[in-house]
Design goal:
Distance between the termini: 60 Å
Largest sheet: 6 strands, mixed
Number of helices: 25
Number of strands: 11
Radius of gyration: 27 Å
Structural class: alpha+beta
Shape: globular
Strand content: 5-15%
C-alpha cells in the first residue's frame, strides 16, 4: 500500500512488475476478507493522518522523561479518537486490538503504550475475577477511563514462581478490612506497565491470610493515587524502575505497601471468596483462573507474527534496492536480494510470520472451543490447550526475536541505525520472551503435560489431538522411522523426534529415581532434555498446523496465490527439518543423500519465492508510518530518506558544537 510515496525506486518497481500473483487478493486473504481490509485501511487513515499523532521529533532524540510524556499525550489522543469512532457507530473491539497490537499501535507509539495494561490486564481481571456486583462497581468506570488501572503480580524477588510472592493481604475481622503489606524489599511489585506515574488503581496479587492461615494468591483492587491530585496515597511507595532495552513509553513501575487498608469488598471474589467472619471459600476449580492467561498468550503469538512481518518487509524492500558486490565479475553489482545467503536470511522469516499468524488463528479457535466447553463444566481439553499455548508462546517469541535480529543483520550498517526501527522492534519482541511466562519455564510446563500424555499412551488410553502421534510412535516396530521427504513425511518425522525425545526423557527420569533421586530431583536433572522435548513437540505442531491452515487457505484463493502460499509453507517445513538434522539422524533413517536432496528442495523454494518476495511483503499491507523506517518505505528511496533522518539530529542544528570551545580546542592547543 503506497504511503508518502513520490518517485518509486526503479529496482523496487521492477520487483513489483515481475510478481506472479495479485497483491490485493493476497492481502484480502491475509487480513481476512474485504470488510476487514476496508475497516483496517479506514482505521489507519483515521489515526495516521491526524497531525496530533504524527511524530514531531524522533523519539530517540528525546530525554527519558520527555519520551514518557509524549507517550501519554499520544495515548490519550488515540483513545479519544476511539471514542469518536464509537460515536460514529464503529465501536468494534478491532479498534482496541489495532491500537494495542503489534502494528498500528507501535506505528503511533513506537516505545509502547502506557495504557496497554489498563486495557489488556486490568479490565479483563475485573471481568475474570470480579463478581457481578464488583463488575458493576468497577468495570464501567475503568472502561470509560474515569480510573486508570494496572495489574501488579511480579515482584522484585519473584516472577514466574507465583507461590513465592511475598506481598501479604491480612484480613482484620474487627474492621472488615484487608491490610496490604510489603514485608521485605523483594516483596515490592516490580514491572507492571503504567504503574509508575499513569495508573491510579491496581489489581494486586497478594498472599491472603485470615484466621492465621495462608490461602494463597488472590486478587485485590487497590487505589494507589488520589483521583484529583494524582498524589500517592498514605502507605504507598511508588515510582518507575528505569530505562530498558525497549518499551520505554510503557512506564513500568515499582510499588510497596506499608500496612495499607482496603475494604473487604475490594477482594475480587468471582472465584475464591472470603466471608465476613474470615472463613475462606475455595474456588470450584483452579482451572478457571487459566482463562485470561491463555488469552494473553494467544494475543502474544499473533503479535509476534505482526512484528516479524514488519521487520521482514523493511529488510526485503531494502535488499531489493541495495546493490552490493558482483556475482559475475563482468556484470554490474547485483541487488543484495540476489545473493542466496540473503534470501536464506529473509525468506524463512516471511514464512514464519505467515505460519505464526495462521497458527495463532488455529490456537484462537482451540481457545474458543475449550472456553465454551469450560462454561458447560467440561475441563477435559483444558490441560491440552494450556500445554500448547505455553510452548507456542515460547517458540514464537524466541523465533521472532531471532528473526528480527536476522533482518537487522541483513541490512548491514544501515540496519544498526535506530531510525531503521529494528532496534525498537527487537526491544518489543525480546521483551515477550520474558513477560507472561519466561520461555524455559513455559517449555517445562509443556513437558510436564507431555510426561502425563506419555504415561497415558503407554496404558493405551485415548489421546487428545495434539499428542495422538505418541500412539503411532509406540505402535511402530522400529525405534527409527523410515525417512520420507514428502510434507506428510516431514511432519511424521518431526513428531517422531518429539516422541523419541520424550521416551528418552521418561527413561532417564526413571533411571535417576532408581539411583536414589526423588521424582523432583530426577525431573530437574533431566530438565534440559525436557525443555528440548517440548521445543520439538511445538515445532512439530507448528509444521502440522501450518500445513492444515495453508491448505485451508488455498481453497479460497486463485491458483496463483495458492502456489505462492504452498511454496512459502514448503520453505518453512524444509527449513525446520534441516535445522533438526541431528535429531532426524537419531530418530529416523535419513541418509546423506536424503539430506542433500532436502537442501536442494529448500534452495529450489528460495528460487521460486525470489520473484515474489517484494510482492509478498507488499501484500502484508503495512503503511510506511507503521513500518517507521527509511529502509523499508514503499517508494524505496532509501538513501534520500536516510539523509533526511540524519539531518534531524540535534547535533546538526549548529555548525560548531559548544564542546569544541569548552574541551577540544583547549586540549588541542595545550602542550602535552
Amino acid at each position: 500500500m503506497p504511503s508518502n510515496s513520490g518517485t518509486i525506486n526503479k529496482d523496487l518497481q521492477a520487483e513489483r512488475d515481475k510478481c506472479t500473483f495479485n497483491n490485493e487478493e493476497f492481502t484480502l486473504w491475509w487480513v481476512g476478507g474485504e470488510t476487514k481490509l476496508k475497516e483496517k485501511r479506514f482505521r489507519e487513515d483515521f489515526f495516521l493522518n491526524d497531525p496530533e499523532l504524527r511524530e514531531k521529533v524522533p523519539l530517540h532524540f528525546l530525554s527519558h522523561k520527555e519520551l514518557y510524556e509524549e507517550s501519554v499525550r499520544k495515548a490519550t489522543v488515540a483513545f479519544r479518537k476511539v471514542r469518536k469512532l464509537q460515536e460514529m457507530g464503529q465501536d468494534g473491539v478491532d479498534n482496541y486490538s489495532a491500537l494495542l497490537g503489534g502494528l498500528l499501535g507501535t506505528g503511533i507509539l513506537k516505545q509502547g503504550n502506557p495504557l496497554t495494561v489498563h486495557y489488556v490486564m486490568f479490565l479483563p481481571a475485573i471481568l475474570g475475577h470480579g463478581t457481578p456486583e464488583q463488575q458493576a462497581e468497577w468495570f464501567g468506570r475503568a472502561w470509560n477511563c474515569e480510573v486508570i488501572g494496572t495489574y501488579a503480580q511480579t515482584e522484585l524477588g519473584h516472577g514466574t514462581f507465583l507461590r513465592g510472592l511475598e506481598t501479604t493481604a491480612t484480613y482484620d475481622e474487627r474492621t472488615k478490612e484487608f491490610v496490604l503489606h510489603s514485608p521485605t524489599l523483594t516483596a515490592y511489585k516490580w514491572w507492571p506497565g503504567g504503574l509508575a506515574h499513569t495508573a491510579n488503581y491496581c489489581v494486586v496479587m497478594a498472599q491472603l491470610y485470615s484466621k492465621g492461615n495462608c490461602h494463597g494468591i488472590q486478587p485485590f483492587i487497590v487505589q494507589l493515587r488520589d483521583e484529583e491530585t494524582h498524589m500517592p496515597l498514605k502507605g504507598i511507595t511508588i515510582g518507575e524502575i528505569g530505562n530498558k532495552l525497549g518499551m520505554n513509553g510503557v512506564n513500568n513501575g515499582f510499588l510497596g505497601f506499608d500496612h495499607v487498608r482496603i475494604p473487604r469488598k475490594n477482594m475480587l471474589m468471582k472465584n475464591a471468596k472470603l466471608l465476613e467472619d474470615g472463613t475462606f471459600v475455595k474456588p470450584p476449580s483452579q482451572a478457571l483462573t487459566y482463562g485470561t492467561m491463555m488469552f494473553v498468550r494467544v494475543v502474544i503469538c499473533r503479535d509476534m507474527a505482526a512484528y516479524l512481518s514488519k521487520a521482514v518487509t523493511i529488510a526485503v524492500r531494502y535488499s531489493a534496492v541495495r546493490r552490493q558486490s558482483h556475482i559475475n565479475p563482468d556484470q554490474p553489482e547485483v541487488q543484495v536480494i540476489d545473493h542466496l545467503t540473503q534470501q536464506y536470511k529473509l525468506f524463512p522469516a516471511i514464512a514464519k510470520s505467515i505460519i505464526f499468524k495462521l497458527t495463532s488463528d488455529n490456537l484462537w479457535e482451540m481457545y474458543n472451543q475449550v472456553t465454551s466447553e469450560l462454561d458447560k463444566g467440561d475441563l477435559e481439553r483444558l490441560p491440552e490447550l494450556h500445554a500448547i499455548a505455553c510452548c507456542l508462546k515460547a517458540i514464537t517469541t524466541a523465533d521472532a526475536a531471532t528473526g528480527v535480529e536476522a533482518c537487522r543483520l541483513a541490512c548491514g550498517g544501515h540496519g544498526y541505525m535506530t531510525c531503521s526501527n529494528f532496534y525498537g522492534t527487537y526491544g518489543m519482541v525480546t521483551a515477550a520472551c520474558t513477560y507472561e511466562g519466561e520461555n524455559t519455564v513455559l517449555l517445562l510446563q509443556t513437558a510436564r503435560y507431555l510426561m502425563k500424555a506419555w504415561q497415558q499412551a503407554l496404558r493405551g488410553q485415548e489421546l487428545v489431538p495434539t499428542v495422538q502421534y505418541l500412539a503411532r510412535f509406540l505402535s511402530s516396530n522400529s525405534r527409527r522411522m523410515e525417512w520420507d521427504d514428502s510434507i506428510g513425511g516431514i511432519i511424521r518425522a518431526l513428531q517422531t523426534v518429539a516422541a523419541g525425545k520424550l521416551r528418552l526423557a521418561a527413561e532417564h527420569i526413571e533411571q535417576r529415581q532408581k539411583r536414589g533421586a526423588t521424582l523432583e530431583e530426577a525431573t530437574n536433572q533431566t530438565s534440559i532434555e525436557l525443555a528440548r522435548t517440548a521445543d520439538a513437540h511445538c515445532r512439530a505442531f507448528l509444521v502440522q498446523s501450518g500445513f492444515e491452515m495453508i491448505e485451508k487457505g488455498c481453497e479460497t484463493v486463485s491458483p496463483e496465490v495458492a502456489k505462492v502460499l504452498r511454496t512459502i509453507y514448503h520453505l518453512y517445513a524444509y527449513d525446520e527439518a534441516l535445522k533438526a538434522l541431528g535429531d532426524l539422524l537419531r530418530f529416523t533413517t535419513i541418509s546423506e543423500s536424503d539430506i542433500n536432496r532436502l537442501q536442494a528442495k529448500l534452495e529450489a523454494a528460495l528460487a521460486e519465492l525470489r520473484p515474489n518476495a517484494v510482492g509478498i511483503v507488499d501484500s502484508f499491507d503495512i503503511p510506511d508510518d507503521v513500518l517507521g523506517s527509511p529502509l523499508g518505505a514503499y517508494d524505496g528511496n532509501v538513501y534520500e530518506r536516510l539523509y533526511e533522518e540524519a539531518k534531524k539530529s540535534p547535533l546538526n542544528q549548529e555548525p560548531v558544537n559548544q564542546s569544541f570551545h569548552l574541551y577540544l580546542k583547549p586540549f588541542m592547543k595545550s602542550s602535552l
